[in-house]
Amino acid sequence: MRKYGLHNRLVAHPGRRDALVQIMIEAAALVKDAPGCELYFVGISPREPDVLWVTEVWTREQDHQASLKLPRVRALIERGRPLVAVPPDQTVTDVVGGKGV
Amino acid sequence: MRKYGLHNRLVAHPGRRDALVQIMIEAAALVKDAPGCELYFVGISPREPDVLWVTEVWTREQDHQASLKLPRVRALIERGRPLVAVPPDQTVTDVVGGKGV
Fold first, then answer.
1. In angstroms, how far is CA B57 from the centroid of its own chain?
2. pLDDT per residue over A32-91, tens digit each?
3. Is the pLDDT score of B54 beyond 90?
4. N or C: fewer beta carbons within 10 Å in chain B?
């Protein structure tokens, strides 16, 4: 079965990336036991000091949509939003296989 | 400890994406037990018919480098290369945390 993948490239305001990383790590801790959350991890770019990547795999798209309605997730999104400099670059994929999914 | 992440966006020649996906799934099967391979999964874009994403997390960059020297991995790279239309867009990240890493 194909799964629902998201590759989010976020650009923080200068000097705010680490704060945004902490929020996304909190988000991972919040959703890790949510139905259908298979992967949710955060990376930073060693070359671009304001950039972070959030990579998600959900069993179904609906599982991801449901997670966005959780009050504590919505609160985190509100905390993170002011730290983000430009609209997120989000790519949706159909995850077809491999190790870890 | 930070881990070594790779986000590879590949563009196949028209009509060859599925063949390239199969090669990358074979690659995942080859490296899944290689030292330090934590994640290696393949996604396709539902919106861009020639695009696939390969997402990797390795414990250390050296583990990834070592995998590229395995003869069977090199053979797969040679099989895949003619299917790729443009130089891969590869982003390196330092994976700092989350679920599944």
1. 10
2. 999 999 999 999 999 999 999 999 999 999 999 999 999 999 999 999 999 999 999 999
3. yes
4. N
Query: How many Cβ contacts (< 8 angstroms) between chains A and B?
Result: 116
Q: Give pLDDT, residue B63.
A: 98
ipTM (interface pTM)? 0.94
Q: Which helix (H) or strand (E) holds A27?
A: helix A17-31
Residues A13, B23: Cα–Cα separation, whole Å: 39
Record the tokens describing residue A31, joined without a space. Answer: 């959703």
Q: Would an 8 Å CB–CB cutoff place B100 in contact with chain A?
A: yes
For testing the chain A interface, which of B44, B50, B93, B101 should be mutated: the one with the most A CBs within 10 Å?
B93
The whole-number average pLDDT for the span A15-23 is: 98
Closest Cα to residue A64, out of A41, A88, A34? A34
Within 8 A by CB and 6+ apart from A68, the residues are A74, A77
- Comparing C-alpha atoms, which of A40, A43, A71, A35 is closest to residue A57? A40
DSSP 8-state assignment for residue A70: S
Q: What is the amino acid identity at position B27? A: A
Say how many residues make up chain B: 101
